[in-house]
Amino acid sequence: MPTSTRVLLGAAATLSLSACALILGDDFEISGGQGGGASSTGGGQTSDGGGGNSSTTTGGGGPMGGMGGEGGASCGMGTADCNGMPGDGCEAILDTDALNCGVCGHDCLGGGCEMGRCRAVQVAAGDTNSSPRSIAVNAVDIFWTNESTGNVSRVPIQGGNPVVIGFSQPFAYGLTVDTNTLYWSRRGTGSDGAIARVALGGGAPVDLVTGLANPEDMANDDTHIYWGGFSTGIRRRAKTGGPIEVIAELSARPSRIALHDNFIFFTQYQSGALMRVGKDNTGILELYNDAGGSLGVAADASGAYWVNFLSGEVRAHTVGDTDLLLATAVSPRDIVVDQTFAYYTASGDNAVMRVLKDGSAPAEVFAGGQNAPRGITQDAVAVYWVNIDGTVWKRAKDP
Fold first, then answer.
1. How many CB atoms lie within 10 A of CB 83?
2. Which of these, 12, 206, 296, 373, has the minimum number of CB atoms within 10 Å of its CB?
3. Strand 341-346 to strand 351-356: parallel, antiparallel, or no bridges (unpaired)?
4. Residue 78 Ramachandran class (φ > 0 left, ψ -120 to 50 alpha, else beta)
C-alpha cells in the first residue's frame, strides 16, 4: 500500500480511453481518442485520435470543455470578424479556422482545427531503430535523444527535416537546454558515461564531464546543470566549469529530476518514491512512497507532479502538503505542468492526456492516435512529445 508523510485527501475521477463515449454524470460527456500507431512518414501529419477535439459540454461549459463561437453584434454564432476588415464580413469560421481556432488569433501552429479545438500535428519523421528518451524545446528548435542510435537531433519548431547534432553518442539519454547551449547525458557502458554540450549557435559537441557511472535525467537553472544516475545519486556542476558538487547520495537511483526555486524534486522507480532535496544539499525528504514505478516528475510554485508507470497513477503533492490522485492511465511515462493543467504521456493508451492540476475534473485526451508516446515538454503556446517510433509531435494549447 502507498505510504505518505501527509494525509491523502482523495482522488479525481478518471477517464477511460475507449473509443466509446464515457458519460460522467448528467451534464458532461467526454469521448476518448482512438488507439493505434501514428505514421512515421513525413512531417505535417495530423493525429487521427481526437486530439482532445471530442470533448464537449452540455451544461454551460467548463475549464476543460469544447471551445464556443465568438459571436458579436454583426456576426452569427461560430463566426467572427478576426481581421477587422469590414469588406469581407465575418470571415473566420471559428470551428475550423486553424489561425482563429475557437477564438480570434488562436493559431493551431500547423495543426488542424475541429470543433474549435486544435489538433496535433507531426513535426518530424521517426528514426530507424528508435528508442527515444528525452525531449526539450526553445524558441527555435525541438531537441531529442535516441538511446538506441545514440543520436541527438533537432528540428525547427514549425517542423521540417531533423538534423543530427550528436552522432552515435553511447546511449544518449537525458537532455536540457538553456538560451545558448544544449546539454545531454551519455549513459555509456560502465564508468565511461559523460555530460556533453554543444553551442546552439554552431560548433562541435564537447564533453563537459566524463568518467560518470550511467548519468540519466538532466535539468538546468541559471547557473548549474544537474543530473542523476544509477550509482551517482544527484550531482551538479556550474555551467562555467569547476568541481562536481554532490547534492544527494542515494541508495536507489533517481529516475527523473525537476527543479523549482531552491529545490530538486526527483522520483525513484525502484521504491516508487517522490523525494525532495535542497539545491544546497540540505533536507532530503520523502514526500510520497509507493510500491515502485515512479517516473516523470514536474514542479512549479503549486507543488510537484509525477506519474507512476506501474500503477498508472498521476499524482500531485501540493505546497500545502496535500497528496492528490489526479488521474490514472496505462503506463504513463512523463509529465509537464503549466498554470492550469498537467500534461502527461500515457504510452499504453497511445495518447497524450491532460488533467486539471487540482484534480477537480476528469482527465481528457489531449492528443490521441499516438504510438506509445514517451518524453514530453512544453512552452507557453504548445505541448511537444516524441513517440516510440521516433516521430515528434506538437499540439497548440487551448487559449
1. 13
2. 206
3. antiparallel
4. left
**Mean pLDDT of all residues in 133-155:** 94
Q: Is 181 exposed, middle or buried (0-12, 13-18, 19+ CB in 10 A)?
A: middle
The pLDDT-based confidence of 232 (bands split at 50, 70, 90) is low
Q: Which residue has the cell 485520435?
A: 49
Say which residue the cell 538553456 belongs to. Answer: 178
Given pLDDT bands bounded at 50, 70 and 90, which one contains residue 25?
A: very low
In the block, residue with C-alpha cell 545531454: 184
- For the record, the C-alpha cell of 139 comes out as 524558441
Indicate the average pLDDT of the chain.
83
Distance CA 315, CA 312 (A): 10
- Are the beta carbons of 142 and 134 closer than 8 angstroms? no
Please tell me the distance from the alpha carbon of residue 323 to that of residue 317, in angstroms, as a whole number.
5
Long-range CB contact pairs, 100-109, < 8 A, 24+ = 101/67, 101/396, 102/67, 102/68, 102/70, 102/398, 102/399, 103/67, 103/70, 103/399, 104/70, 104/80, 105/399, 106/396, 106/398, 106/399, 107/381, 107/396, 108/396, 109/158, 109/381, 109/382, 109/394, 109/396
Report DSSP letters for 59-90, one per residue.
SS--TTS-------SSS-TTEE--S--GGG-S
Return the C-alpha cell found at 385. 512529445
Sign of the alpha-carbon dihedral angle for 275, 278, 280, 283: negative
Of the two residues 10 and 195, the one the predictor is more confident about is 195
Q: What is the pLDDT at residue 130? A: 78
- Per-residue pLDDT band for 31 (boundaries 50, 70, 90) equals very low
> In sequence order, what are the beta bridge partners of 259?
264
DSSP H or E stretch at residue 338: none
Which among 388, 394, 344 has a CA at the least distance from the CA of 147? 388
Residue 87 in grid coordinates: 469588406
Say if residue 142 is exposed, middle or buried (CB neighbours under 10 Å; 0-12, 13-18, 19+): buried
Chain Cα centroid distance, residue 129: 23
Residue linked to cell 461560430: 78
Contact predicate 358/39, CB 8 Å:
no
Q: CB neighbours of 211 closer than 8 A, spacing ≥ 6?
A: 191, 192, 193, 194
Q: Are 14 and 327 in contact (CB under 8 A)?
A: yes
